[in-house]
């Protein structure tokens, strides 16, 4: 059998490096898409579909998972397998919108990199990894590459996203839900909800991992995704 076409979608302020340690190259033809060029979830989803082959496996982390669910709404027939990592299907909450509006104001006032360093990093990764200089440097470098305008697009997209819970029951393709056990951004109960409401879903909980599971525990995530892709 040939390799599976696989689209990978990063999270907010992340690029292809979010996925670089996930070892799938022998099983899949991998393409990582940019998720910072439009300011609505639907707009980003349509840009991904324009780049994607007719049929493909799809995996997204956090914002990437939200976009993946939107793709399942508008083009479910094109997705042969789905993986949702550290993903929240709920609509935005008022307190979240208030926080994101503050981040947009900070970004426009020259404080863009302060957001990642001072506000996001403390909740993104497992507490034991906060002094991991290589990991922290990679997260900050990814944020710099996405840039202020890309980040503002992403915040506007999540601020205006719809409730994705009604989509779940209609997802028919084999689906893997994966969550970092210590994820504070998208706590495990959100992944449990996805598992309970998507008919053909399995759930993998990755121990000793926060929100960025592909960077924090790449070997465990690789094993889970290889099992998902191969159907074993």
Structural class: alpha/beta
**Total count of strands:** 6
Give Rg in angstroms: 16 Å
Q: Helix share of residues?
A: 40-55%
> What is the approximate shape?
globular
Give a quick account of the main beta sheet: strands, pairing sense, barrel closure.
6 strands, parallel
How far apart the termini lie comes to 15 Å
Roughly what is the average pLDDT, rounded to an integer? 96
Low-confidence stretches: none
Strand order of the largest sheet: 2-1-3-4-5-6
Q: Count helical runs.
A: 8
Strand content: 15-25%
Order of helices and strands: EEHEHEHHHEHEHH
Give the topology:
Blueprint: E1 4-9, E2 28-32, H1 41-51, E3 56-61, H2 63-74, E4 79-85, H3 94-108, H4 112-124, H5 133-159, E5 175-180, H6 188-197, E6 201-206, H7 213-216, H8 218-230
């Amino acid at each position: 059998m040939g390799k599976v076409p696989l689209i990978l979608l990063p999270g907010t302020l992340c690029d292809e490096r979010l996925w670089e340690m996930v070892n799938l190259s022998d099983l899949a033809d991998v393409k990582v898409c940019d998720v910072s060029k439009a300011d609505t979830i639907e707009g980003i989803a349509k840009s991904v579909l324009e780049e994607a082959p007719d049929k493909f496996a799809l995996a997204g982390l956090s914002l990437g998972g939200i976009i993946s669910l939107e793709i399942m709404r508008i083009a479910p027939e094109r997705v042969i397998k789905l993986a949702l990592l550290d993903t929240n299907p709920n609509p935005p909450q008022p307190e979240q919108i208030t926080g994101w509006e503050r981040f947009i104001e900070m970004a426009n006032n020259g404080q863009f990199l302060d957001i990642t360093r001072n506000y996001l990093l403390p909740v993104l990764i497992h507490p034991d990894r906060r002094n991991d200089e290589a990991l922290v440097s990679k997260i900050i470098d990814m944020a710099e590459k996405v840039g202020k305008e890309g980040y503002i697009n992403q915040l506007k997209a999540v601020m205006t996203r719809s409730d994705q819970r009604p989509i779940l029951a209609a997802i028919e393709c084999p689906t893997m839900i994966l969550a970092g056990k210590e994820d504070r951004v998208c706590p495990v109960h959100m992944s449990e909800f996805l598992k309970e409401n998507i008919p053909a879903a399995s759930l993998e909980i990755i121990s000793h991992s926060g929100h960025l599971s592909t960077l924090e525990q790449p070997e465990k995530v690789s094993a889970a995704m290889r099992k998902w892709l191969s159907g074993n």
